[in-house]
Design brief:
The complex is a heterodimer of chains A (about 300) and B (about 270). In chain A, a hairpin with a 2-residue loop joins strand 1 and strand 2. In chain A, about 25% of the residues lie in helices and about 35% in strands. Chain A has about 300 residues and is of the alpha+beta class. In chain A, helix 4 packs antiparallel against helix 5. The mean pLDDT of chain A is about 95. Chain A has a 15-stranded mixed beta sheet that branches. With about 270 residues, chain B is mainly β. In chain B, the strands form three sheets. Chain B has a 13-stranded mixed beta sheet. In chain B, strands 2-5 form a two-stranded parallel sheet. Classes of the chains: A alpha+beta (about 300), B mainly beta (about 270).
């Protein structure tokens, strides 16, 4: 189907049920809350190699945070809550505890809890203290710039969605990148989702398996423009580059909203930037529990 | 809001135990049984019907109208619903409460909220000593819940308290937080002499302290984010009963070093 001079494939993105948790990081300034969040999100692009997919959901105003300071919400997605536990512990311990003025609170509401402060509190070497307010327990860990406050637990959900995606194809690599950046920026305003890859964009889309033993994923040759003519390519002659946006969300609806927002932005910005086509990645529909049909997401 | 009202006929000649008068305990009680419930403390065995006129229907609220300081154990064991006292309350109001709301529109006697487990107690006037303290035979004082006193409180507030929050918008008496094991006491107008004696853990927050114990170490002035969290929690959970926001910059005294020294007194002035 053509929409605003861009072909939108009659296909679907295939996504998977994942576990997810989250934290709210605050600091004395928005700059330092964001710095801690960016550091914690590092090396968190794909569960395949990173153990968790991690990213910033959104910035929070002081009125939205437990301590009345600027904050950032970070979401983590993994295969299971057990798999998320060490990721959360290590990332908070190494990247948030260490960041000046930081504090760390539960970022997902759920009846099912996962340990948050019960590991990092031991950094206090016995000088840490707890403060229980209502049903919430906070740990106060003495550090060199004062106290690191961390909530004892955060929520974890087992019905989150990972792997919503858009493949954006274009005849101008620079224009394609600008268009995809605009789509990622628009998606960042959608609550409860992250785009975990660098700047929200993937240039190395993968297929399942490899000719080499031990490789669980390898390059998506059908979408590599330099292989056109040598493999069964999915790309027409005008396509010089393909970029992908991968979306994880706490609910199926949040992923659909993010894909709809991204697709709408591409259709608005893309025609003037050489974008020719939008597609989506799937595995024939047999692996993922969630199918997002592009035609149903058109504005 | 349905409920029962117990109107005091005349000032009682003896102390009364009003712990049977809670919404839960009265929920399935017939009027005759209710009127025959013994609440006296002497061999005269005074009953509810001897002392009160009863009106209304059982529901989620009980009102005791005409309260005096001889009405003891009001709200004892309250687990849900609201108990309103129009007037004063005697000793041990809200003793062992686990939930619900006890609203005293006058003043309260000593041991208000003794061994409190949960729920909210509010006092329009002042309270006697040992607020949130322990009752005989128990290891700890209050272990949860919130007490808000608009006026002053007596000595040894929070004695052996382990968890929960006590807010005194007036001034606290001597030895506040004695032998405390955890929790928070906020005295907006400050503490009397020697707060936190033998305190092990927990937090006392106030504008001033009349006399500090020598077993507290001055840790200096600090900007503590936990106080922002506490202020916000109190505003969210207490609404109009909440105290003024606590300044986040305080002078911290660590102690009691005569015990394990893991508690603190935070002075805002």
């Amino acid at each position: 189907m053509m929409a605003r001079a861009i072909t939108v494939d009659d296909t679907f993105a295939e996504a998977f049920t994942m576990a997810a948790t989250g934290v709210v990081i605050t600091a004395d300034s928005e700059k330092w809350a964001r710095q801690a969040a960016i550091t914690m999100s590092g090396f968190g692009t794909s569960v395949i190699g990173c153990g968790a997919e991690v990213g910033i959901d959104r910035e929070l105003s002081p009125s939205e945070t437990p301590d009345g300071r600027p904050g950032v919400r970070v979401l983590l997605f993994g295969f299971s809550s057990d798999a998320l536990l060490p990721q959360l512990k290590n990332r908070v311990g190494q990247c948030v505890l260490t960041s000046p003025g930081s504090a760390c609170y539960a970022g997902v509401e759920s009846d099912t809890k996962i340990a948050l402060g019960s590991g990092p509190r031991f950094f206090g070497d016995g000088y840490q203290s707890a403060k229980t307010l209502g049903k919430t327990r906070y740990w106060r860990v003495p550090v060199m710039d004062g106290e690191f406050i961390i909530e004892e637990t955060t929520g974890v959900v087992s019905d989150a969605v990972g792997g919503g995606n858009l493949l954006i194809l274009g005849s101008d690599r620079a224009g394609l990148l600008r268009t995809t950046e605009a789509a990622v920026a628009a998606i960042s305003a959608v609550p409860d989702v992250i785009t975990p890859f660098p700047g929200g964009i993937v240039r190395s889309g993968s297929k399942v398996g490899s000719k080499y033993d031990g490789m669980v994923a390898s390059t998506n040759d059908a979408y590599c423009p330099t292989l056109r003519g040598t493999v069964k390519s999915e790309l027409g002659p005008d396509v010089v580059a393909v970029l992908e946006i991968v979306i994880d969300g706490l609910t199926p609806k949040s992923v659909a909203d993010a894909m709809r927002t991204g697709l709408s932005t591409v259709l608005q910005v893309g025609p003037a930037e050489g974008v020719t086509r939008v597609s989506a990645g799937n595995y024939g529909g047999k692996l993922g529990q969630h199918h997002y049909k592009l035609q149903e997401l058109l504005p | 809001m349905s409920g029962l009202t117990f109107q005091l006929k005349t000032a009682p000649a003896e102390r009364l135990d009003l712990s049977p008068l809670t919404p839960s305990k009265l929920a399935n009680m017939a009027l005759t049984e209710m009127l025959g419930t013994v609440i006296g403390s002497t061999k005269r065995r005074l009953t509810v019907g001897d002392v009160f006129t009863v009106s209304g229907q059982p529901g989620d609220t009980v009102t005791i109208a005409g309260g005096t300081e001889r009405l003891d154990f009001i709200g004892g064991g309250l687990d849900k619903g609201t108990l309103i006292v129009e007037g004063n309350a005697g000793i041990c109001a809200g003793r062992g409460m686990s939930g619900g709301r006890l609203e005293i529109r006058g003043s309260a006697g000593p041991w208000l909220g003794a061994s409190l487990k949960g729920g909210l107690i509010s006092v329009k006037g002042s309270a006697g000593g040992h607020v949130g303290g322990w009752r005989a035979g128990e290891s700890f004082g209050m272990i949860g819940g919130t007490v808000v006193i608009d006026g002053d409180a007596g000595a040894r507030v929070g004695d052996r308290m382990r968890r929960g929050t006590i807010i005194i918008k007036g001034r606290c008496g001597t030895y506040a937080g004695s032998r405390m094991l955890g929790g928070t006491i906020l005295a907006e107008q400050g503490f009397g002499a020697k707060p936190g004696v033998l305190l092990r853990r927990g937090t006392l927050i106030g504008s001033t302290a009349e006399e500090m114990l020598p077993t507290y170490a001055d840790s200096g002035k600090h900007d503590l984010a936990i106080l922002n969290i506490l202020s916000k929690y109190l505003a969210d959970s207490l609404g109009p009963l909440a105290p003024a926001p606590i300044p986040s910059t305080v002078r911290k005294f660590a102690g009691d070093l005569a015990a394990i020294g893991k508690g603190e007194i935070l002075l805002t002035a």
